[in-house]
Design a protein that fits this description.
By secondary structure, the protein is of the alpha+beta class. It folds into 2 domains: 3-63, Alpha-Beta Plaits (2-Layer Sandwich); 66-168, no CATH class. It contains 4 helices and 6 strands. The chain has helices at residues 15-19, 47-51, 121-132, 137-146; strands at residues 3-5, 25-27, 35-37, 57-59, 81-83, 98-100. Strand 2 and strand 3 (35-37) form a beta hairpin. It is elongated, with a radius of gyration of 18 Å. It starts with a strand and ends in a 31-residue tail after the last helix.
Length: 177
């Protein structure tokens, strides 16, 4: 699950922003200079919670969890697919790489011509938050583009070649899990 800043508690000191390894926090344009967390870039590490001197950051159960801590896409329907969301991204379009478990080590990009069906629930929820912070619209938009989107690969059709990371340089391939 992602985290939220309790506005009534936040003192705007920036300790959370300084410690975040993913640059997932931004100061709002409000007079008080409060912070907000972008769930598309937050990887739920919890460093911001530990560094906040007034404990103004708490886990937010309304946010979907990321893959590493129990992605909601991890259901029976998607059990044959792994995503690589917080590791390697496609060098051509920036999308997280996906793979069919049956295909072994071969990762494929859902953003380079494959038909897509599912968006990560985080991207749906961030749209709701972005509406409340119009001054940070560019930041939310950039995160949405860079995470476009944690979508599922369709089943491969026999005899039809799909784009894959075999077309990427070896330096761009993720290590096998």
């Amino acid at each position: 699950m992602s985290h939220k800043v309790i506005e009534e508690e936040c003192i705007g000191c920036g300790a959370c922003d300084y410690t975040c390894p993913r640059d997932a926090l931004r100061k709002t344009d409000s007079f008080l200079g409060l912070f907000i967390i972008n769930p598309l870039t937050c990887d739920d590490c919890g460093d911001c919670i530990e560094k906040c001197p007034v404990w103004a950051i708490v886990p937010d159960p309304d946010w979907p969890v990321c893959y590493g801590t129990g992605c909601p896409l991890r259901s029976t329907r998607y059990s044959s697919v792994d995503c690589n969301v917080w590791q390697q991204r496609c060098s051509a379009c920036g999308s997280p790489l996906w793979r069919k478990r049956a295909s072994g080590d071969e990762w494929a990009c859902p953003g380079c011509g494959l038909k897509l069906r599912v968006r990560c629930p985080r991207s749906h929820r961030v749209e709701e938050v972005a509406e409340h912070y119009p001054d940070l619209a560019d930041w939310f938009e950039e995160a949405a583009v860079n995470s476009t989107d944690f979508k599922m690969l369709e089943a491969e059709v026999p005899g039809q070649q799909s784009p894959s990371t075999s077309q990427l340089p070896k330096s761009q391939l993720p290590s096998a899990r």
